[in-house]
Amino acid sequence: MQNNSIYPAFRRIVIFLLRWVVPLLIIAFVIRTLQSKQQDLGEVWQYIQAAWSQQNSGWLPLTILLTGLNWSIEARKWQVLARKLESISFYTALRGVLAGQSLGFVTQANVGDLTGKMGFLQAQNRLNSIGAFLLGSTVQFLVTLFTGTLAYSYFLYRMPQSPGIGHWIALVLLWISNLATLYLLSLKDRAAPTLERIKWLANSARFFRVLETYSTADVSQVTALSGFRFFTYSVQFLLVLHGFGVSLPLLDQLTVVWLLFLTKSVIPAFSFLSDLGIRTFSTLYFFSFYQVNPALVTSASLTIWVINIVLPVLVGILFVTQLRYLKREENRL
Q1: For residue 50, is it within any domain?
Q2: DSSP label at 328?
Q3: Contacts of 306 (CB under 8 A, 6+ apart)
Q4: Scanning 43, 126, 229, 254, which has its CA 20 to 30 A from the CA of 145?
Q5: Could you say which DSSP state residue 198 is in?
Q6: What does the alpha-carbon distance between residue 17 and residue 270 come to, in Å, rounded to a whole number?
Q7: How far apart are CA 274 and CA 267, in angstroms?
Q8: Counted domains in the chain
Q9: pLDDT score of 332 more than 50
């Protein structure tokens, strides 16, 4: 009985640390890093104001427009994935994606994203859509993992000093992760049968039955949409770096941007604070290998975070109240 009472208390402490203490420590590290380079947050804000007031500030509206394209691509991807369960309109898919973005801002991992997307499906299809959601997330992760691994390979090649053994181990692990993720995708048809053979997981097998309905052409379409979305994100970040006057060869900029996306994908965020902290910390770390003003790249990272995360979250709030969970009666859209 004592152990049963200790476990919930311990779990609450761990969650509190992960959601609040660790993110605050990361943010404190970011601030200390800026201060150690004789930069402060006031200067960061001045860079943002200066970049937005320049005559060549056309990069800003273009970046915002690309945000709309980003989430439209994600909505189309969800529409393609969900059609194996039920036919939904593009607008319905977009509402689910944006509602998920808002819910994901205050929840852990992909729980909010999943909750928002399945929230606009018929009740009988919601839990059965878990497999569809995982397929889309895995393919998007694989695109990020593969491009990030290529970027890391080039990054090590470009390092002025010889990379330590730790870097080479990390690179090997990344390539192994690529192969492992590809292998898992190839086993999608066996997911439900495998779970059925495990007694304590048998009841969850039905959530993954939908994976058996996706053909190679379906997966290829989802992969193409995921790649298009990743390309759009990359262009956005390059535009923002240009707006803040970061002067580096295009290939070096793209390398760092892909490394940032890789870091964000492999390090879990437990709240919006840790998400911002990871983004800013990675930006400072990878750009530290180049002769770039740290306040400039920090400002760029904060700007892309506001445009790609905060704006969709604010828009998505409008759709959270429309989730079918909140309705007593459901009508097919």
Answers
A1: no
A2: S
A3: none
A4: 126
A5: S
A6: 10
A7: 10
A8: 1
A9: no
